[in-house]
Specification:
601 residues; 21 helices; Beta-lactamase; Penicillin-binding protein 2a (Domain 2); elongated; alpha+beta
Length: 601
């Protein structure tokens, strides 16, 4: 019989159990060390994300001024009623537990706010309350820490009464909200541009990028100077980081970084001249551009039809958007409109002929009213003919046969290169957004690649007088005459900041004087009491889908003729169709008005 020692067996088991327990404590210690020390920062960050919230708000947008310090864009006070939806959290969340339907939740939240506001309305009168149930619920779900504006543009009387009656810690509060304002309404609307609310806030200088963030929308420039200089005008956003309760209510403010207001922008626009130009253009569809030939500054830029900038702030209604779209008023015709330049292009044609030595001051042509090219007669605008006409008179009277006679000797390639030498084939580079890049200066190679057909003498004839494939903007033509006024080959305009640019002499002094002499004679014919150098033009434009033509009237020039200070371009679109429309006769009275204003001083 074998006997076992029970005490030795129990001791072995106890030692084994002790080892297991000790191992468990070691594992637990290692885990605690790992969690408490090695993973401390991760869990601390998770805790912060649960209980911290970041609130962003933009700085006040900078103002825009004209050259004389008149405000073109600033802010006006809007008396606003706000609601803190956190005030209704408990009752609303209880409702939501029983009602999962989104529409029911929207209506309930709206009813809670409405019923809470009703006692004040009974005391002080009707309070405008136009917020939609959908907007209320959306704000509650996404931006509940930020008070929601439920009534804007309150009358001062209502605002004052609410200030006296609303409790300090209630659901409602009032404040003054800054709304973008344009003192001159529709004047210079395309140049100034407009703003729209955007959630795209710059947060580079603000901490807490991984926290749940609430924000107030920022104004962002959409067109004009508002868009070109949006960075300077916007300033820098501010922000706060709050510790919140589990229910999401603000508890302690931990960090506060103030917003930095935007910079003010001073432009080259003369708002008084701008108003004169807009009145001069009246109800015409078209544009006027006035440039300072010495500095490159844009003094006025008009485009019609236009719109009232104050109708676009703080938001654009559907009716306003549709009206502006239907009238074509979004288009800034000065930098986005593309038109054949008509006889104003003869400035380029004559410059090319003089440069090539094909004509001189004494060259002449017998104009009979038409000129035969191939099997087609190309007419002069004077059907009776000008008779024997010299170089300067040909430019003054815009005699087509003169340019046909000598231009066919020149050829299309040299004509194309001449236009490019004045940089007529590229945008001006003005500091406004959305300038078109679709300017077209045709060449034989361009036509071959576009249509597959060879260039003909008829194409050359049409190009010489600014027709057919040619497309330019009014600002580009204004820059052309500004450059010509200085006998330079390039002119770059600006409204706020100038760009460094170099130019070279365009023509010999002798040829330049020949070119200018014809423009001076035209100026003496069209403009009274002011010495000007001018070229007018009338371009045909075929109406899409029809076999009829409408016209574009042009007048470009500079003044005074012998000591140029300003250059200008007037472009007017014919209403309807018909042949009884001439650029010089239509544009001259318009130009006379703003030239009188400029030089009466």
């Amino acid at each position: 019989m074998i006997c076992f020692d029970a005490s030795r067996t129990n001791f072995a088991r106890i030692r084994c159990l002790q080892c297991v327990v000790a191992g468990a404590f070691v594992v637990l210690g290692i885990t605690i060390f790992y969690r408490q020390y090695l993973q401390f920062h991760n869990y601390n960050r998770l805790g912060e994300k649960q209980c911290l919230r970041r609130i962003l708000y933009p700085g006040l947008r900078g103002n825009i001024y004209d050259r004389n310090g008149n405000a073109l864009a600033d802010h006006r006070d809007s008396y606003t009623l706000y609601v803190d939806l956190n005030f209704f959290r408990k009752s609303f969340e209880n409702f939501c537990k029983k009602h999962k339907n989104k529409e029911d939740q929207q209506e309930q939240l709206w009813a809670l706010v409405h019923d809470a506001l009703l006692p004040y309305a009974k005391q002080i009168g009707a309070i405008p309350f136009h917020i939609s149930p959908q907007k209320l619920l959306q704000h509650y779900r996404q931006n509940v820490l930020i008070p929601l504006a439920i009534a804007k543009a309150l009358p001062k009387e209502i605002y004052a009464k609410l200030v006296n009656r609303l409790p300090t810690r209630g659901a409602f509060s009032v404040g003054i909200e800054k709304i973008r304002h344009y003192p001159y309404g529709r004047t210079a609307c395309h140049v100034i541009g407009y703003v729209a609310k955007t959630p795209d806030l710059d947060t580079e200088n603000l901490p807490g990028g991984d926290l749940r963030t609430f924000f107030l929308p920022q104004e962002q420039g959409r067109t004009g100077i508002e868009a070109s200089y949006n960075r300077q005008l916007s300033g820098y956003n501010g922000g706060e980081i709050w510790r919140v309760t589990p229910a999401g209510q603000e508890q302690d403010k931990l960090i506060s970084i103030p917003a930095v207001n935007g910079e003010d922008i001073h432009t080259s626009i003369d708002i008084q001249l701008q108003q004169v130009c807009e009145r001069a253009l009246g109800y015409y569809r078209g544009s006027i551009t006035v440039l300072d030939v010495k500095s490159g500054e844009v003094l006025a830029m008009v485009s019609k039809p236009d719109f009232n900038l104050n109708d676009l702030t703080p938001y654009i209604s559907k009716e306003t958007f549709e009206h502006i779209t239907s009238t074509g008023a979004w288009l800034n015709r000065a930098i986005q409109g593309l038109y054949p330049p008509g006889s104003t292009f003869k400035i380029i044609s004559m410059s090319a002929l003089l440069r090539a030595g094909i004509i001189t001051e004494k060259s002449s042509c017998n104009c009979t009213g038409s000129y035969r090219i191939g099997n087609r007669n190309f007419r002069c605008h004077d059907r009776r003919g000008h008779g024997l006409i010299t170089t300067s008179a040909a430019l003054q009277k815009s005699c087509n046969p003169f340019f046909f006679k000598y231009g066919l000797q020149l050829g299309p390639t040299k004509l194309y290169k001449e236009a490019c030498s004045y940089y007529l084939n590229v945008p001006t580079g003005i500091d406004l957004p959305y300038e078109t890049h679709k300017i077209c200066i045709p060449s034989p190679a361009w036509k071959k690649s576009r249509t597959g057909e060879p260039w003909t003498d008829g194409n050359t004839a049409n190009m010489l007088i600014g027709q057919e494939y040619l497309l330019v903007t009014p600002l580009k033509m204004a820059c052309l005459v500004a450059a010509i006024s200085q006998n330079r080959n390039i002119f770059i305009p600006h409204i706020v900041q100038s760009m460094p640019w170099e130019s070279s002499q365009a023509l010999s002094e002798k040829d330049w004087h020949v070119l200018i002499s014809g423009m001076k004679k035209a100026g003496a014919y069209y403009i009274r009491n002011i010495s000007t150098a001018i070229k007018s033009g009338t371009a045909q434009v075929k109406v899409a889908g029809e076999s009829v033509y409408t016209h574009i009237g042009w007048m470009v020039g500079f003044a005074p003729a012998d000591n140029p200070k300003i250059a200008f371009c007037v472009e007017i679109e014919q209403e309807g169709v018909g042949s009884d429309f001439w650029g010089g006769q239509t544009c001259a009275p318009v130009a006379q008005v703003f030239l009188n204003h400029i030089f009466k001083k």
